[in-house]
Design goal:
7-stranded mixed sheet, alpha+beta, 169 residues
């Protein structure tokens, strides 16, 4: 019901560097649909996961950004972003993918729809994932989602930074 919303995982924590108003300003100033921030794993390790996708002839290429721009245009960012509600309503998450590849599926479709995505290195959130073994094991049922994703996007091979990665199921 609001013009904008913030998406983040349940194991993220706000810090002094979690400046949602800066992300909102970026959306307005750049006429973006989505602006994401930085994730700091366990409060000390910066996770770099923003860049560009291409899907062509059965090959999914994922190029992680190596640009040093503080604010950069990308095809995807982490699951920590602010977005225009009206843009996301047109590109909802696929409920057939519960874990593993739901993120890639969303951003590939968002790119195809022409949604404008930026990443801002100045805004951070901390990620403190569960170390509970039962929880971790419950999230490892990737095969059915991997297969669904690959069939949906006609992916036969996947490359990250030019290196092949395994597709299994």
């Amino acid at each position: 019901k609001t013009s904008f919303f913030v998406l983040l995982d349940d194991d993220f924590l706000f810090t002094k560097k979690t400046d949602i108003s800066l992300l909102l300003n970026n959306i307005v100033e750049m006429n973006a649909d989505i602006v994401g921030g930085v994730c700091i794993d366990f409060g000390f390790k910066k996770r770099i996961y923003d860049g560009v996708y291409s899907v062509s002839n059965g090959i999914l290429n994922l190029i992680i950004s190596d640009r040093k721009d503080v604010i950069r245009k990308v095809d995807f960012c982490l699951n920590f972003f602010i977005a225009k509600t009206e843009a996301i309503i047109k590109c909802p998450w696929d409920n057939n993918i519960k874990i593993h590849r739901e993120h890639d599926d969303f951003f590939i479709r968002a790119k195809d729809m022409g949604l404008v995505v930026y990443h801002n290195d100045l805004v951070e959130i901390e990620h403190h994932p569960s170390t509970n073994k039962k929880y971790i094991n419950s999230r490892r049922i990737f095969d059915i989602y991997e297969q669904y994703f690959n069939e949906k996007h006609q992916v036969k091979e996947r490359y990250i930074l030019g290196k092949p990665t395994t597709i299994k199921y």
